[in-house]
């Protein structure tokens, strides 16, 4: 834990350095919420379209969710969200156009979570 999910709109597919951003998110989790490096799991989901706001302007969207175990302070969770938003532009390429970013940090029940490694 944490389980990190990054949803991003199709428009960013060719310019978004997902691997670099995923590694950065894992490092931020280690630094800011004391996660173990080997426990950080980041996945990316490409979304065909997202609608942001009520105007005609089209934004790309990157939505990041950190699922973590309870016990971190509100300040630590806020620092993780802020650092994530601050890091994102570095991984979006030279001209991604208008991009909206959203980050949430949610807690998941430790008793019902399971993780395993198979093979290798």
TrEMBL record:
One of its GO terms (molecular function) is 5-carboxymethyl-2-hydroxymuconate delta-isomerase activity. It comes from the Bacteria. InterPro entries: 5-COMe_2-OHmuconate_Isoase, Tautomerase/MIF_sf. This is Isomerase. It comes from Kitasatospora griseola (Streptomyces griseolosporeus).
């Amino acid at each position: 834990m944490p389980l990190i999910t990054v949803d991003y709109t199709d428009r960013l597919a060719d310019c978004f350095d997902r691997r670099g951003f995923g590694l950065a998110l894992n490092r931020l989790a280690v630094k800011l919420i004391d996660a173990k490096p080997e426990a950080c799991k980041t996945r990316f989901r490409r979304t065909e379209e997202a609608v942001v706001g009520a105007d005609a302007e089209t934004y790309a969207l990157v939505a990041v969710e950190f699922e973590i175990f309870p016990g971190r302070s509100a300040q630590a969770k806020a620092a993780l969200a802020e650092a994530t938003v601050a890091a994102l532009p570095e991984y979006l390429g030279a001209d991604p156009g208008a991009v909206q970013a959203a980050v949430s940090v949610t807690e998941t029940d430790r008793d019902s979570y399971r993780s395993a490694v198979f093979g290798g």
